[in-house]
């Protein structure tokens, strides 16, 4: 390549320096830290949707979004984030207060232990891990609800578990889209 062409290639608007920054563009701190939290909080508001059913069918979208962010970007959310996000989810889920605080915090610790044990994972292992955690979350949540729950009644949450497990890859795909939005470069002034 001639020296003139190299100079022209370096001076284009899409030029990146060694840190990934383009000319006059940089990552937004507000987007980088706010998008994951905002998507989890908005997903926790899903119980407010007007869904009428005879049994529990609505997946725990807030918990699924938390797991998806933890799987897609393992180091992004700190371990303690389960407490405040779980408290917000408890306000809208209809579960006793403290249910999501405890279970989300335990899930974050469990995901960290899984990440340490299996640093290289694939799609099937991530889906199986998330499905297992969602199943445990729903069963323990049914026990915490304080109702008269016999063994026969656990069959009532099977459709909710299956729907949640089937929807998790879609939620993970949405999180990967929001991750690209989170890393969007905006114009820097000054």
Could you walk me through the main structural features you see in this protein, from its secondary elements to its overall organization?
It is a single chain. Helix 4 crosses helix 5 (99-117) and helix 6 (123-144) crosses helix 7 (158-182). The radius of gyration is 21 Å and the shape is globular. It has helices spanning 3-10, 29-44, 61-72, 82-93, 99-117, 123-144, 158-182, and strands at residues 25-27, 185-187. It has 190 residues and is mainly α. A two-stranded antiparallel ribbon has the order 1-2. The chain contains 7 helices and 2 strands; from the N terminus they run H-E-H-H-H-H-H-H-E.
Keywords, separated by commas or semicolons:
190 residues; mainly alpha; two-stranded antiparallel ribbon
Number of strands: 2
Roughly how many Å is the radius of gyration?
Answer: 21 Å
Question: Looking at the structure, what is the overall shape?
Answer: globular
Strand content: under 5%
Question: What's the mean pLDDT score?
Answer: 85
First-last Cα distance: 34 Å
Question: How would a textbook summarize the main sheet?
Answer: 2 strands, antiparallel
- State the oligomer: single chain
Low-confidence stretches: none
* Secondary structure: helix percent: 55-70%
